[in-house]
Amino acid sequence: MLLVTGVSGALGSLVAARLAGRADVVLGTRAADTADTAEASRAAGTAEASRAARAALPGTRRVDFDAPETLPEAFAGVDTLLLVSAGYGEDDTVAARHGAAISAAERAGVRHVVYTSLSGDGDHLAYALAHRWTERRLQRSTTLDWTILRNGLYAELLAGLAAPDAENRITGPLGEGRLAAVAREDLADVAVAVATDPAAHRNRVYELVGERPLGGAELAEALGATYAPGTLADARTAVAASGAVPFQVPMVASTYSAIAHGFLDGTGVESDLRALLGGREPLDALDVFVKAVREG
Ligand SMILES: NC(=O)c1ccc[n+]([C@@H]2O[C@H](COP(=O)([O-])OP(=O)(O)OC[C@H]3O[C@@H](n4cnc5c(N)ncnc54)[C@H](OP(=O)(O)O)[C@@H]3O)[C@@H](O)[C@H]2O)c1
What CA–CA distances, in Å, run from 78 to 24, 113, 131? Predict the structure, then answer.
């Protein structure tokens, strides 16, 4: 049996929709059976897909890494765990979540954990440490097989970083840098392909970055906007003033900085994306970006 966690989230809901109707799949979410919680519905467009997927599947289990005492029941009978990273927190919070999930998987007799990590070129990002900690924890497990899906930054995330302002200017400090962004849909396809055939991907680390790096000028052109990048200091101030909690400020600032300074444009990365998509072309990240901006 395959258990997928985080199915109310944007990536998890896409995975769940692809697995709908399979009797050997169970969906895990903090919001099991109460899918209309504020957290689940926060995922707006994705919450509907997630609910539809849940309705089509026989089982939804409560999976909350912040409640480790519930995990033995959640993981009972599971052979493969697709552990969707539960980011958005300080390193100690995220590591504790993932550590609890992996320890519980070991105790429950799970054979294989597939983990959605962060691309190797993302090591300068403030949120890289918790991913690398989790990778190391899995690789040091004496009982688990594992596969690490090192997901590149989403094209949909770029829509948040480079949305035009009221004067139709993209002011995000991307400099002259570019991002080898990848569509969430593609990452969901890869996660499904790997998690439904884990033995073929045993103890492998896959880099999943896009093939076409996108820069501020190109993003602006696609939207009929202008590109007028501000400074990192401006962005940091704006994020802090937006009501973000403290860890979110370096998250955003380090993302701009890593893009602007050329660390995330895919140079030198041998991406496994196309191969794991069965040889098909990845979705066009620019199209995904434009659609995500227009949908707000
Ligand atoms: N590559 C990128 O560009 C990028 C961008 C943003 C985030 N990420 C990472 O990739 C993950 C998936 O991305 P996403 O777009 O699907 O993010 P998302 O929409 O924010 O979904 C994250 C999901 O993680 C689950 N989660 C959070 N806390 C949890 C906990 N304590 N126990 C169990 N599950 C928990 C939740 O699922 P339920 O509500 O169903 O419990 C939540 O909806 C994120 O969590 C983050 O680590 C990657």
Answer: 10, 10, 23
Of all protein residues, the one whose alpha carbon is nearest to atom 47 of ligand 1 is 87
The enclosing H or E element of 122 equals: none
Q: Is the CB of 86 under 6 A from ligand 1?
A: yes
Residues 83-131: tens digit of each pLDDT = 999 989 999 999 999 999 999 999 999 999 999 999 999 999 999 999 9
User: Ligand 1 center to residue 225 CA distance, Å?
Assistant: 30
* Percentage of the chain exceeding pLDDT 90: 89
Dist CA 136 CA 231 (whole Å): 35
Rounded to the nearest angstrom, the distance between the alpha carbon of 188 and the centre of ligand 1 is 13
Query: Which numbered atom of ligand 1 lies nearest the CA of 39?
Result: 39
Q: In the Cβ-directed half-sphere of 33, how many Cα atoms lie within 13 Å?
A: 5
